[in-house]
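Support request, please re-run this one:
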Amino acid sequence: MLERVIEGILFRSRWILAPFYVGLVVGMLVLLFKFGHELLHFVLHAVAATESDIILGILALVDLTLTCNLVVIVIFSGYENFVSKIDPNGHPDWPDWMTRVDFTGLKQKLLASIVAISAIQLLKAFMNLDKGTMSENTLMWLVIIHVVFVGSSLVLAWSDSLSNNKH
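Re-run finished. Output below.
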């Protein structure tokens, strides 16, 4: 009897995660505001901008978009895996991956997004080298961090591959 009560409490406690996912939706709205701000700045300064400035502006927009994609992945796959199944019926444009991403797939998608975001930050830093706004030390750390993200992704993919081969 006591065991069933404890299990019931533990099972229902997963709903504590729901406000976190709603909070991430609010975070996406903040990203949308920042994206709009960056887009307006980008468009208003496009005429006087150099080719490098245009590329950096587009990279900033891509960076914000990838970050928002990352949040969507976390929201849907996290909710689906840890809180409750989502019924895709009645949503004709429901992406297939949203109901099929397991925890391993979530980790891989997250790391792939983080690597892409890191690569964009590194590319932006390299494009700003001629402006002298970044020290060699900072650039070195950006490269190291990116290599760590790439290495972590490869190790995760390899370990997931090993565990899948055992089953």
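The chain is about 75% helix and 0% strand. The two ends are 35 Å apart (CA to CA).
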